[in-house]
Amino acid sequence: MAANSTADGAPVERPPLGSPAISVRGLTKRFGKVTAVDDLSLEVHPGVVTGFLGPNGAGKSTTLRVVLGLVAPTEGSATVLGMPYRSLPEPTKTVGAVLETQSFNPLRSGRNHLRVLASASGIAQRRVDEVLELVGLEAAARRNAGTYSLGMRQRLGLGAALLGEPRILILDEPANGLDPQGIRWLRDFLRGFAAEGNAVLVSSHVLTEMAQLADEAIVINRGRLVRQASVAELTHGSRQLRVVTSEAPRLATALRERGLGVVTTGDGELRVSGADAARVGMIAFETRVPVLGLAEKETSLEDAFLELTEEDAR
Amino acid sequence: MRNQIASEVGKLTSTRSIYAMLAGLVAIVAIGVVATTTDGEPGSLIAPLEHQVFLNVSLTIAPLFGLLLGLRSFTDEFRFGSIVPTLLASPVRRRVLGAKLVATAAAGVALSLAAVAISIAVGVPILVVKGIEITWSTGALALVVGRLIGATVLWTAIGVGLGLAVKHQVAAIAGTLVWILAAEGILSGLVPNVAKYFPGAAGFAVVGINPAELLTPALGALLLGAYAVVAIAAGGFLMQRRDIT
Prior knowledge:
Chain A is of the alpha/beta class. Chain A has helices spanning about 60-65, 90-95, 110-120, 125-135, 150-160, 180-195, 205-215, 230-235, 250-255, 275-285, 300-314, and strands at about 20-30, 35-45, 50-55, 75-80, 95-100, 170, 200-205, 215-220, 225-230, 240-245, 260-265, 270-275, 290-295. The relative contact order of chain A is 0.14. By secondary structure, chain B is an all-alpha fold. Chain B starts with a helix and ends with a helix. In chain B, about 45% of the residues are buried. Chains A and B meet through helix 1 and helix 3 of A and helix 1, helix 4 and helix 5 of B.
């Protein structure tokens, strides 16, 4: 991947990244009387894309901003490779971050925006043109950034994050404004970036995107950690079967007698948990109930997320 | 801090607004010089160049542009959200403040020199056409220009500090201009002995305008410098504690 390659495209061997790449411990942030983040602890490790999930207002952006030294914690700490962001000797060569779609002077060209950021970090100006090519903005580079579409703004932000060839990427809602190709490109890019032993923390409230993007998921709600698990783990575990039958009450009784969880949804459909399709099929056969449809329903990340945050709310 | 200064100079020169400000300054000064020289009292026109009344146009306007430049330095970044990448690249915030002070001061000096140059380029030929003989002392002229540069640099610093403290661009610029151009004028009529210690009056004192009623240039510079220190300290203090959300 070009983020980690020399100008002629040859991959560069980089030493393994320390782990955890990002560590948040006992973080609490209050704005006046509002507690945005409440005793939150989490770790982000290299080699995987970590999703940071939560509804709007859950405290994701505040947490990311504490990690990046933009917001001071009320209690607790956040470190990057064991150090506060502000103490990193070369912050943009360690962490690249995209927080907002608008973070540039609209009267400055995209190229000049990257140039002033490069000089602030002591990064060679030729890296700017490499990055413009990498994010596909060469054609618009000399236009004022104020004329850019939302997707182009996201690309410019990502370009700024990649200037220092960082080993850690932090992206706040990066899929906003990207078209399907853009999201696909971002997914491939982040996957490749993580596969090289780098760390990625990407926040979103759009769970369908996250299911595609992330390997690990950190779910927070109302400032608190709800769950840290792999995306596979989150979507697994609560697998359900959809059973369509002409004699729903009889089958439901039979399944419940055998200790399975059954929810009737009307229309002769049952939601069964605690057994696989073969077992449910056998029970139906023994009970002499006709089965008209039998399908495994994989819990989407969205369902898992809603379930988790609802449990938390109770 | 060299990287930060290079970045700030890059920011100043990579949008059109600095050139628009330069063009505006040149136009205002040129018009003002034409007005004072064609309309000037004969007594003021025979003085040596360094005492020409037409120079007062650049002496009053250029520091004001320096102030605007300073006020915009941080407020532009807050307004456009570019403060985020700026602070990500330079998380030690006082370095950003220092770099902005240096870069805006340099730009202020450039604006001042342009203002003096245009006033001489416009004013002297008009006087010559009027048949007035121009004399000048290089030392005295240098002193006038030096005071202008000093005043402009201090004003840029006040602007940078105030902009950082206030954060909101319109509030910062409108508030400052209303104070200097209106409030101080009214107060100087009511309480002249107090009003001469206000920042605007101190700024005019630095460039030697109205010496009968204002402080000496040296005292003015000292006072204006103190205002600059206060503005920077206030802005810097708030910046250290402020959450960028």
